[in-house]
Design a protein that fits this description.
Elements (H helix, E strand, L loop, with lengths): L10 H66 L2 H8 L7 H18 L9 E7 L4 E3 L9 H5 L2 H7 L8 E3 L13 E9 L5 E9 L1 H8 L8 H15 L1
Antiparallel strand pairs: 1-2, 1-5, 3-4, 4-5
Helix pairs in contact: 1-7
Length: about 240
Amino acid sequence: MKLRHFIPQTLKYKLFLAFLLVILLPIIILNMTHVQKFEALMREQVSSQNLEQTTTITSSLGSLLSVSEKTFTLIEQDSFVTAILRNPEAGGSYASFQQRQKIEEKFNAINNSVFIANSYVYYTVLDAEDHVYTSYGPTHILSHAALSAIPVIQDAFLGKSLSKWQLEEGGLTSAFGIQPSLLTMYKGLRDENNRVYAVVRIGVDYQSWLRSAIPSPCAAKPNEYVRLGADWKQGRE
C-alpha cells in the first residue's frame, strides 16, 4: 500500500487536511496543555489547603487540650467544691443530693465559660468516700468500687503523676457510662498534708470536636473557586 493513497488528490480535501494540521490540531494541543496546567494547579491548591488545615486543626486541638487541663485548677481552687469532696455527706441523704448538685453546677459553669464554651469536655470526680460526680448523664449507674479498681485511678489516689493524655474507648462497655471515645487525663486533689482526697478525670471528645472543626467539602466557598480560576487565567497569560 503506497503512502500517496492517503494524500488527498483534490483541492477540497487538501484544504481540509491543511485546516486540520495548521489550525485545529494546534488548538487541541494547546487546550490539552492548559487543562493539564489547570489540573496541576488544582492539585497544588488542594495540597496547600490540606496542609494549612491540618496545621490549624493540630494547633487548635492542642489548645483545647491545654485549656481543658487548666480547668483542673478551677476545680482545685474552688473552696466550696473541695470542702464537699473532703467531707461529703452520707450517701442518700438530702445534704448529699445538694452537694452533688453543687458540684455538677460547677462543671456546667466551667463548660459554659469562656475557657471551653462547648460540650466536648467531660468531668468525672471520685472522692475517698464512695461518691462519684459527673458533668454528664451516664448511660448507667456508676459504681465507685468498680471505678476505683481501674489501675489508672488507683495510681492517681496513690499520688502518682499522671499528667499526660491517653485514649480511652467509650461505648456500652465503658465503665464511665459514656458513648464517645475520649482523650483523658487523671489528676489528684491534695490536702495540706499532700494526701489525695479525690481524683478528677478530664475527658475530651476529640471526634466530635474534629467533625465540627473540619468543614464539609460540599461547603466550599465560591470565592475559592473564583480565586483558583484567576490563578489559572494568570498562568495562561
